[in-house]
Amino acid sequence: MIDILVAGGGPAGLATAIHAALAGMEAVVVEPRSTPIDKACGEGLMPGGAAALASMGVEVNGRPLRGIRYLDGRHEPQAEFRDGHGHGLGVRRTELHAALSLRAAELGVQVIPGKVDQVRQDQDGIEAAGLRARWLVAADGLHSPLRRSLGLELPDRRPGRYGLRQHYQIPPWTDFVEVHWAAGGEAYVTPVGDDLVGVAVLSSERCAYQTHLAQFPALRARLEGSAVTRVRGAGPLRQRTRSRVAGRVLLVGDAAGYTDALTGEGITLALRSAQALIGCLQADRPQAYEGIWRSLSRRHRLLTGALLHARRHPASARLIVPAAQHLPALFTLAVRALA
Question: Taking the model in full, what pTM does it have?
């Protein structure tokens, strides 16, 4: 019998399979899409995420990131990641997925085409996609069908936020992730190659990408005429989850619940959670994963939640970037806490 069946072959699913293989467990990934998989993503890894990739033996090309810079047209506060935490990494989603896929293949992880849509579980294991395994890991994304079918999804009445991303063939002008703030949302500029930057916009307003970008005239002028990929979107971003464990099914990555992309920690949290999940299964303590996930994600949930709360109110939203400039020690502390 397979040790772990993974539903979803994105970064969270592949990381789970890699950690399982490193622990001497047999893992099979079920994924309907072909490699490499692209999706709307800010494409910036915090130093903790870059370190997590290295610990798995995953080698990926990208641009080193030194820190975070906020801009609102009048203020430009910035904070560097602490030296002891190394640097972040700007990397195309397709490059990241290809590197994870290669490492999984090196370790003997089998990836089969298909989709997990029905699960039967008993005291000893689960059956899904025509296979039987001891455990099933749901890594099937932001709008996880498995999370919904297991009754783990919680409603959220707050206005949804959505993300759109496009790439521009232009040499990066900074080794910081730039977060441009406007009344209607944010634009995130991430260097991902020697002549390529990704620009993601986040907003609760649903409109065309170029309409969003018009809120940032200086940025738009800099990018004029250099788009080289089509616009990809995702959302609503916030996903509330009742629990990460349902019998022999465990949730990881975006399927486990998502706050927002505002602080750019999604991939890092997915990689660290995948390692924790496998550790719990190794110890035959699957129920411990819920508490560990909450502990791993607590700082992200608190800081991102606080920023989102301020962002929802126009009066406080206008103060976010000026406050970061006037309180540099606090801004640096927050960036290093997330790093």
Answer: 0.95
